[in-house]
Amino acid sequence: MASKQLTEIKNKEFFNELSKTWDSTNTASTSVLFNNLLINEGDKVLDVACGTGVLTKGIYSRCKCKVTGIDISDEMLKRAVINNEGVDVEYINESFYNYSSDGYDVIIIYNAFPHFIDLDAFKEAVYRNLKSGGKFIICHSLSREDLNRHHSPLTKDISRDLIEIEKEADFFKDLFIIDTAKEDDQSFVILGHKK
Ligand SMILES: C[S@@+](CC[C@H](N)C(=O)[O-])C[C@H]1O[C@@H](n2cnc3c(N)ncnc32)[C@H](O)[C@@H]1O
Fold first, then answer.
1. Ligand 1: does its nearest atom lie under 6 Å from the Cβ of 70?
2. Among 54, 101, 165, 186, which is least packed by CB within 10 angstroms?
3. Are 176 and 170 in contact (CB under 8 A)?
C-alpha cells in the first residue's frame, strides 16, 4: 500500500492540475447526496475533500450557519472561494488525515472516498471530528463499477478501487453504527453515526 504521505503529495499535485478543468467537466448531480442526508438548521457541517465547493451552497441553504470545507488542493480551494462568494463558509487547506476540530454534527465525503487510501487514518479522522451521535455520509453520484472504471487510469497512489458496499461499510462498524449501505447503477451511499 502507498504511504499516506505519498498519497497526499500525489493527490495535491493531481487535483491542483485538474482544478483548471474541474468545474467545466464535472457534471455530477448533488441530488443523491441531499436526498439521502438530512441536515438540520444549526448543524455544524464539514465537507471533506470539498474541491471547488460544489456542495457549499446546498449545505448552507439547509444548515443556515457557517459551513466548513477542507481540501488538500489549494488550487481547488481558490476556485471554491470564487464559486461561493457571499456564502458563510470557511475553507481549510489541509489533509483531512491530520485535521482536528471541536466536532461536527455532520461530515460529508462526496465523490472523494477512493482518494483516501489509508483507511485506518481516514476512519480515525472521521471519528475524531464528529460529535457523539454525529452523522457521516460517504456518497457517490456514480455506480461503483463506473467509478472504478473512471479511476482505472490513475495510479494506486491517487485512488483505490471500491469493493462491495457491505465490506466497505463493515470496516466502520467498530466505531460507528451504519444506518444505510446501498448502491445501485447511479449511486453508492454509506450513512452512519458515531456510537
Ligand atoms: C474527485 S475530487 C471531488 C471534489 C468535490 N467533493 C466534488 O465533488 O466536486 C476529490 C478531492 O479530494 C481531495 N483530496 C484528496 N486527498 C485529500 C486529503 N488527504 N485531504 C483532503 N482532501 C483530499 C482532492 O484535492 C480533490 O479536491
1. yes
2. 186
3. no
**Residue 59 within a domain:** yes
Question: Would you say residue 147 lies in a domain?
Answer: yes
Looking at the DSSP assignment, which residues form a beta bridge with residue 135?
A: 106, 193
From the CB of 73, is ligand 1 less than 6 Å away?
yes
172 lies in some domain: yes
Q: What is the pLDDT of residue 2?
A: 65
How large is the average pLDDT for residues 10-23? Answer: 97
Query: Which residue CA neighbors atom 1 of ligand 1 most closely?
Result: 112
Residue listed under C-alpha cell 444506518 = 179
Q: Quick check: CB of 95 below 6 Å from ligand 1?
A: yes
In this prediction the pTM is: 0.97
Q: Which domain holds residue 97?
A: 4-18+29-194
Q: Please report the pLDDT score of residue 3 as a whole number.
A: 86
- CATH number for the domain spanning 169: value is 3.40.50.150
Tally of domains within the chain = 1
For residue 134, being part of any structural domain is answered with yes
Pocket of ligand 1 contains residue 72 by CB under 6 Å: yes
Q: What percent of the chain has pLDDT over 90?
A: 95
In whole angstroms, how far apart are CA 99 and each of 92, 122, 128? 9, 10, 9
Q: Ligand 1: distance of its center to the CA of 167 in Å?
A: 23
20 CA → ligand 1 middle, Å: 14
